[in-house]
Automatic annotation (TrEMBL):
Lineage: Eukaryota, Discoba, Euglenozoa, Kinetoplastea, Metakinetoplastina
GO biological process: epigenetic regulation of gene expression
Keyword hit for Secreted: no
UniProt domain Histone deacetylase: residue ranges: 51-362
Localization per Swiss-Prot or TrEMBL: Nucleus
The name this protein goes by in its record: histone deacetylase
Keyword list, A-Z: Chromatin regulator, Hydrolase, Nucleus, Repressor, Transcription, Transcription regulation
Entry EC number(s): 3.5.1.98
Family, as annotated: Belongs to the histone deacetylase family. HD type 2 subfamily.
Pfam families: Hist_deacetyl (PF00850)
């Protein structure tokens, strides 16, 4: 997967995104807990203080997906030569790159990895016999994949995505797996939560067009994404909050956020730790309660992070807190709600440092208990740093304006409100967003 690189194509989707995350996992004090021995290099293990008496992670070795597994969702006419000969995909959009040989192998490793991980997790949470092996008790997985996948439709690579990893995993589960129910079995119920800053039109299209023999769609797609009244990539009408599905009505739930992070008058309207916390707790989890999935995929993009060059939002601790809350919900099984499998798959995020921190924080959330000191620490919401950034930007503009000989030009607006006042406005705005999307729960 690390050999799939732009090679001259001006793209922020590079191998450094994933490599930096792996390096940070290896170098952190909890590395022996967070990553299995197979992912540790000699340097990471040379420090005895990092060794753990019991490793908390299990390695699922990735394999090359078969062409038949990829054809369960993707158009054979588009992908045949790419998969079988390693040739470059043709007629690609300008926001996608593809290389001879290496891209095909990266795709097949990503797809094979997520299919095997999700199959294992689904099997474990629906098991009716006692666990025999340590791997039988694994209920969650973190798939570090690239290239990302959620923009890719059945026949159109898009937005750095060559194939749709999550859709392929879901489709293969639907075809190959059943879930025990009483004295019989049924297809699994699968929910997909997309936390990438961009709407995943590929996943939405898959869910909306899924054909079920029972008449009821066993798939649900929920997305929290920047929308800006349709002015943010991928510019799809189906990303609007009013769209709930055309083929499978009610199977799509869009939390489409109109943001104004660079507007002095409305800068409190930004995707933040506070917004994610409220939407997860008050919209996502109640909707999942209604849907009752057997397995939850999280399409985890880190491009809503502060510092991302494309997302330009303000999330920092929100990734850890979101996954911890989802894990708590998934594992809180009782007579009315059995445990739910959780599979987190890497999607976007184009600041390597922000992606690495996101990978580390999500690993904390998946490895340790939600109420552990470490998870609580990295889940504490932070005041959006976009405000301080905007304040400095406007101050520089004002200083330039004062030095200008053309003082008759319009005076640049100043961000005069302090962070405490902005935070009050921000929390009120977050509450308004929850109210706006409350119909997803009703």
């Amino acid at each position: 997967m690390l050999k799939h690189d732009p090679h001259g194509h001006r793209s922020p989707e590079t191998s450094h995104r994933l490599q930096r995350g792996i390096d940070m996992l290896r170098q952190c004090d909890q590395s022996a807990d967070l990553i299995p021995p197979e992912m540790c290099n000699d340097d990471a293990l040379s420090n005895t203080s990092k060794k753990s008496a019991h490793n908390l992670s299990h390695f699922i070795p990735p394999r090359l997906a078969t062409k038949e597994e990829v054809y369960t969702f993707h158009d054979k006419a588009v992908y045949e030569d790419f998969l079988e000969k390693g040739t470059v995909l043709e007629n690609l959009k300008s926001d996608v790159y593809c290389n001879e040989g290496t891209s095909s192998r990266a795709v097949k490793l990503s797809v094979g990895g997520i299919i095997d991980a999700s199959s294992l997790i689904l099997q474990n949470v629906t098991r009716t016999t006692p666990a025999k092996e340590p791997s039988d008790s694994i209920f969650s997985s973190f798939c570090l994949l690239r290239p990302p996948g959620h923009h890719c439709t059945a026949n159109r690579p898009s937005g750095f995505c060559l194939v749709n990893n999550v859709c392929l995993a879901a489709e293969n589960l639907m075809r190959k797996c059943t879930v025990p129910e009483g004295s019989t079995t049924r297809p699994p119920r699968i929910a997909i939560l997309d936390l990438d800053v961009h709407f995943g039109e590929g996943i939405a299209e898959y869910v909306d067009h899924f054909q079920s023999s029972s008449g009821e769609c066993p798939l649900l797609y929920l997305s929290i994404h920047r929308y800006d009244d349709g002015g943010f990539y991928p510019f799809e009408k189906t990303a609007d909050a009013t769209f709930t599905g055309a083929g499978n009505k009610g199977s799509i739930g869009n939390m489409a956020i109109d943001t104004h992070a660079s507007d002095v008058e409305k800068c409190e309207q930004v995707i933040s730790d506070f917004l994610l916390e409220k939407l997860i707790d008050k919209v996502v989890l109640p909707r999942l309660d209604r849907f009752k999935p057997d397995l939850l995929f999280v399409s985890m993009g880190f491009d809503a992070a502060y510092g991302d060059p494309l997302g330009k939002m303000a999330v920092e601790s929100g990734f850890c807190r979101s996954v911890a809350a989802l894990k708590r919900w998934c594992t809180s099984g009782n007579s009315s709600k059995p445990p739910v499998g959780l599979v987190v798959a890497l999607e976007g995020g184009y600041s390597p440092e922000a992606v690495a921190l996101g990978i580390l924080h999500v690993s904390y959330a998946l490895t340790y208990a939600p109420d552990s000191a470490l998870v609580k620490h990295f889940s504490e919401p932070k005041v959006p740093r976009t405000w301080g950034e905007l304040r400095l930007k406007q101050e520089r503009k004002y200083a330039q304006w004062e030095k200008s000989e053309q003082l008759a030009s319009e005076k640049p607006p100043q961000l005069t409100l302090d962070d405490t006042t902005l935070l009050k406005k921000h929390v009120q705005w977050c509450d308004a967003q929850v109210k706006k999307f409350s119909s997803l729960v009703a």
